[in-house]
Amino acid sequence: MVARLRASAAVLFIVVLSFGCSSKDRVVEVGGSGGVGGAGSDAGACASTPDGEYFLALSAPLSASSPIVFLAALSSGELSLQPLHACDREKKAGPAISLGALVPNPTGYFDFDPPPFTVPAAANPVTSVSGDVQIDLTSFRGALCGPSPCGDADGDVTSPLLISVDGSTWAARKVTGPADYPEPPALDCKGTLAAPKPGACPGQ
Q1: Is the dihedral of CA 72, 21, 59, 188 positive or negative?
Q2: Which residues on neighbouring strands pair with residue 155, listed in sequence order?
Q3: What ranges make up the beta strands (E) of the chain?
Q4: How many beta carbons lie within 10 A of that of residue 188, not counting itself?
Q5: pLDDT of 59-99, one tens digit each?
Q6: Is 102 helix (H, G, I), strand (E, B) or coil?
Q7: Which residues have a Cβ under 8 Å from the Cβ of 98 and sit 6 or more positions away?
Q8: Where are the alpha helices (DSSP H) in 68-121?
Q9: Strand, coil or helix: what is 34?
């Protein structure tokens, strides 16, 4: 009986370790075509920064099914985020945000500490928090390989309230224009989908 209990405990410990590892660990260990939750591709495809535009959804635990959405642009390793309206996930809200250099390693994995940035009120999907939201991400990490980049993020909302957003997730898809924007977008490496968009923006 004791031996069986010890064996069960060992199995449980291994399962906990498997689910508790970071996305960085998953990228490094899985490799090949798996990547983070299936987002990866072969290392050769990620040997250089994959420039282009991506529809990116950032899902925080505070409002997991209603992400902040951006049109993310990578150009010569420089990352910028154009917030999109929370109402239609398409119309631009405020100016683009320059976050500096993001360079993945040869497997496509990156762990980026961007400068603090502000999400305008129109792009804020959390109705209980009015006004602009200032975000300070201490880690924005994941894999850029394959058709569905994704990963995790930690940090804080620093204004108008101090709220931890540790355990946030993100998912992105390369696009060529608004007609390409996914609806509803994926939120994480598992392919969890966002709640439907609220509708047309006021005045549309």
Answers
A1: positive
A2: 137
A3: 52-59, 68-75, 78-83, 97-101, 109-112, 117-119, 133-143, 150-159, 163-164, 168-175
A4: 23
A5: 999 888 999 999 999 888 889 999 999 999 999 999 999 99
A6: coil
A7: 78, 79, 80
A8: none
A9: coil
**Residue 180 in tokens:** 């390409």
In the numeric block, the tokens 């060529």 are attached to 176
Q: State the average pLDDT for the chain.
A: 76
Give Cα separations from 141 to 13, 104, 122, 150, 151 (angstroms).
26, 10, 26, 8, 6
Angle at 120 between CA 131 and CA 172, to 5 degrees: 130
Average pLDDT over every residue of 190-202: 85
CA gap 93, 84 in Å, rounded: 5
pLDDT recorded at residue 6: 39
Do residues 148 and 169 make contact, with C-beta atoms less than 8 angstroms apart?
no
Structure confidence at residue 103 (pLDDT): 78
Average pLDDT over residues 22-41: 33
Say if residue 193's pLDDT is above 90.
yes
